[in-house]
Structure formats: C-alpha cells, structure tokens
Amino acid sequence: MTQHTMQGAKPASQFDIPNALRFEDAPGGLARAVISTPAAEADIYLQGAHVTHWTPRAQRQVLFVSPKSLFAPGKAIRGGVPVIFPWFGARSDGKAGPAHGFARNTEWAIEGTKLCNDGKVEITLVLAPNDATRGFGYAAFHLRLRVIIGSELEMQLETRNDAKEPLIYEEALHSYFTIADIHQTSVSGLEGTTYIDKTDGFKRKKLGDEPLRIAKETDQVHLSTKATCVVDDPVWNRRIIVEKSGSDSTVVWNPWIDKTKSMTDMAPGDWEQMICVETANAADNAVHLSPGASHKLTASIRVE
C-alpha cells in the first residue's frame, strides 16, 4: 500500500502516486488530481473538492459537466459532484451568501492520497474555517471529503463541529449524471415520499407509486428518505445506482428548457442529457450537530 499524508505545506505533487494519481494545473488557474486505475478514470478539483469526472473502464461517461461550465477561481463548476455546505439553495436566514453555500467555491487542502491493495485510489481533502467563512458566520467547523475511485465512486463527507454551541447546517453531494435522453429516463426509489416542489412555491406534495419521470422543470427535495435511487437510462441500456448513508433527503433536479436558457454556464440543449439525483440533508432534514460531534454523509455510485 502506498500512502502519502500531509506534513506541513507541501506542493500538491508530493501527493502524486506513480501510474495512478497526479496533480496538475488545469486550464483556468485551478489545480486538479487526475486519477487513472485499471478500473476507472477520474478528475478531482481542489476548488470545492469537486469530482468532475468518473468513468469506469469500457463504459460511457457517468458524470455530466456542461461544456459551458466555468473553470475559474471562485466560480462554481457546473456539473460533476459539487459539495454543498452549509446551506442548500439560497441562504434562508436572510443573511448574504452564495447559493448552495461556500464549500463548492473554496479551495480545499490535501490531507492525503493512498493506493489501496485492491487497486482503488483514495484521496482525502479538508476544509477549515478561513476569513471568508468567518464572514458568513462559520468559524468553528471542519470538513473532510474522502473520495475512493474504483469500479464504484465512493464519497464520504464528514463534518465536525468545533464550536461550543450546536451547528445546524444543510449539505449535499450534488451529483449530475449524463443520460441519453431525459424524456426516456426515470428515477426509482422515491415512490410514496413527500417532497418540497421548489418550482411551485415550495408546496409539499407526495410522489405516487410509479418511478419519477421528468416532463418539465423539476426541483424536488424528497424528505425523510434513506432509500437507494436508480436512474434508468434505457437508451444507453444502463442503470446508475446511488446508495447512501447519513442522508435523509434526496434532491432531483432538471432545469428544462427555459431555466437552462437563463444559465450562462449551461448550453441550450444540456437539459436533455443530464439529471441530478443528490444525496442530501436539507430543509426538515438539516443536521443538528452537538459541540464536538461529527456527522458522515456518504454516497456510493455504480453503473449496471
């Protein structure tokens, strides 16, 4: 087993693993890890601890990234798996802050990299408070994202509360998936759940007993569900399976036609070939973390 861990401030290349993982400067001034194993390929940006690419060998691309996405310091990447923390969507307490929180726009530090005996590659990134987060009122938290690259994509987001008072927060691993045709795609696993319909005045509704199909702009926060979700992509004859733990919400999103047109970092037809099925704790399911306590949110993605 090859393992590298952080000892003081070292250049990212200190964490390279020969023939498996290397750090490089990407276009736009961002740094990323490029991972290549017998089982899969992946890219992970240090800004946002953002997985933008994960493709098992001999398979189609799994994660969707818009061709118009910005790759620039302080700008959110459109696609992949953004890390959402400490609020989901617009900040709800009336205070200023970027949509979906600050974690996805902030540079994370490398804690370590590891080549496992089974050939999987593990990378751990961490985010601690800085002047910007303190400006938003978050001065005593610690985030650690562990990503394991193999024939499955495994992500574990651990949040620790270092404050003397409880930390209440929302979070998500906001995964975007590439699909052949949104009109023929369905999501199973959420049948019978209550959801907040963000496209209809945040009304609460109940999903029926059939798999969820998308026929219009969709932005649904499904509450109090721990279930595995399956994205059925019949045109490409595959199923994308999203298993999770430490998560009580699942969000399903597709911007459809008009919303996509209003987004500068989406191409006009992007909505037809993407769907977000997000592992989350949002709204009623916000996490209440006691002083000194930690919480782990995990998502495991595979293709069948």
Keywords:
ten-stranded antiparallel β-sheet; eight-stranded antiparallel β-sheet; mainly beta; 304 residues
Q: Can you describe this structure?
A:
The chain is mainly beta and 304 residues long. The protein is built from two helices and 24 strands. It has helices spanning 131-135, 256-261; strands at 2-5, 21-26, 30-36, 40-45, 50-56, 83-84, 109-115, 121-127, 141-149, 153-161, 167-169, 171-173, 176-178, 186-188, 194-197, 203-206, 212-213, 218-222, 229-233, 238-245, 249-254, 274-281, 287-289, 294-303. The strands form four sheets. The chain has a ten-stranded antiparallel β-sheet with strand order 1-7-8-9-10-24-20-19-14-17, with no helix packed on it. Strands 6, 12, 13, 15, 16, 18, 21 and 22 form an eight-stranded antiparallel β-sheet that branches. The protein is globular, with a radius of gyration of 19 Å.
Q: Approximately what portion of the residues adopt beta-strand conformation?
A: 35-45%
Q: What's the order of the H and E elements?
A: EEEEEEEEHEEEEEEEEEEEEEHEEE
Radius of gyration: 19 Å
What general outline do the C-alpha atoms trace? Answer: globular
Strand order of the largest sheet: 1-7-8-9-10-24-20-19-14-17
What is the mean predicted local confidence, pLDDT?
A: 95
Helix fraction by DSSP (H/I, runs of at least 4): under 10%
**Number of contiguous helices:** 2
Largest sheet: 10 strands, antiparallel
Question: Low-confidence parts lasting 5 or more residues at pLDDT below 50?
Answer: none
